[in-house]
Write a structure and sequence with these properties.
With 361 residues, this protein is mostly beta strands. The chain contains four helices and 14 strands.
Length: 361
């Protein structure tokens, strides 16, 4: 089991990277904080010296209940105030912590949890100043420009013209040819033939095949995280997992054959209404009408679905003309030179579209 030297940060002078076993800051001499957070450096420092390994394995440091100084596990008297270590003194051992591999606190790679004192220090260090907000001015300027660009005001435009288009699907009654498994009673001609209706799967044989499978072959211990020993050292955390090996095995698989099943199918002729090209009518006035079909035999033609669209032409304050599609209920009520509500760009006055909500659409 590998042992590593941890690091800790001073909350008095903000010096970072103090060696974990040291109980005082290397920069200002302040005591290691009571709620110390040990963390791993990016490049782990492995302990090789036998004497230091024994210190790392001796147990967690303890904090004196009288003066909060940090002491080593083997020390029975506080090094700072000389009070003996006993249960009556509220002396506490630094808690050992286990971390999974992806949770180990590492300097420069993962934020460590900050306590209230650290947060207060950071807030004080980052207190607002006028210089820190200079970068906001370009953003505010861009926001103002965008607001002005998209800002719309109400206006009016004048109706200068109308346009409409109507379309009707035409259906022709004619003889068509179909194929189906059933013969309708209305068929006027028919023939019958054999065709594949579906396939049945028929068992042929069993076939022996081999495949590779994974089978348990024992267990192994592996490093799955780190343990903070509570004394400035980390140790590898071990977990156990099952290991597997490949094994060839034989198995039987059934082989099937698709056998076609034939049934009678019918090819027949029948009278049906068939959709043809639509007929259209359009104009630039307010007198819409549906196109009249030009057919020789009216009994074999009929109208199907109908569609219609209506537009108006409007002139804005700049004299520019625009086309807008509107509902028929609005279109039919308008007249040439009517003033209707619209939107325009707040700064340039450019036309942005009709106010259809005010117009009832």
């Amino acid at each position: 089991m590998a042992i590593y030297i941890a690091l800790w940060d001073c909350r008095t002078c903000s010096h970072t990277g103090n060696l974990g076993p040291h109980t005082n800051c290397a920069a200002c001499g302040a005591a290691r904080p009571k709620q110390v957070q040990f963390y791993m450096p990016e490049k782990p420092i492995t302990v090789e010296d036998e004497a230091e390994l024994q210190k790392a394995k001796s147990g967690a440091d303890w904090i004196c209940g009288h003066c909060t100084a940090h002491n080593k596990a083997w020390e029975t008297i506080c090094r700072a105030c000389a009070n003996p270590r006993d249960a009556a003194s509220d002396d506490v051992s630094i808690e050992e912590k286990e971390y999974n591999e992806n949770e180990v606190p590492i300097t420069g790679k993962r934020e460590r949890q900050l306590n209230a004192n650290e947060l207060a220090h950071i807030r004080e260090k980052n207190a607002p100043s006028s210089k820190r907000f200079l970068w906001l001015f370009p953003i505010a300027l861009v926001m103002i420009v965008l607001t002005l660009f998209f800002w719309e005001t109400e206006s009016n435009v004048q109706v200068t013209g109308f346009q409409w288009e109507r379309e009707t699907d035409m259906l022709h009654y004619e003889i068509v040819t179909h194929e189906d498994w059933n013969l309708p009673s209305e068929a006027i001609e028919s023939s019958r033939f054999q065709a594949i209706h579906h396939y049945n799967k028929v068992f042929v044989r069993n076939e022996t095949r081999t495949r590779t499978v994974q089978v348990p072959a024992g267990t192994e211990r592996y490093v799955c995280g780190k343990v903070s020993k509570g004394n400035g050292y980390f140790a590898d955390k071990y977990c156990t997992r099952t290991i597997y090996r490949d094994k060839q095995e034989s198995y039987q698989t059934p082989i099937y054959q698709d056998v076609p099943i034939y049934q009678n199918k019918y090819r027949y002729k029948i009278w049906e209404w068939v959709k043809k090209d639509p007929i259209r009518a359009k104009g630039k006035n307010q007198n819409p009408e549906w196109a009249k079909p030009a057919v020789s035999d009216a009994s074999k033609w009929k109208e199907g679905e109908k569609r219609q669209k209506y537009w108006i032409w409007v002139r804005d304050k700049k004299g520019e003309v625009h086309q807008e599609e509107v509902k028929y209920s609005i279109w039919q009520k308008l007249k040439l030179k009517d003033k209707i509500p619209s939107f325009e760009q707040g700064v340039s006055g450019s036309y942005k579209g009709l106010d259809l909500e005010k117009m009832g659409q």
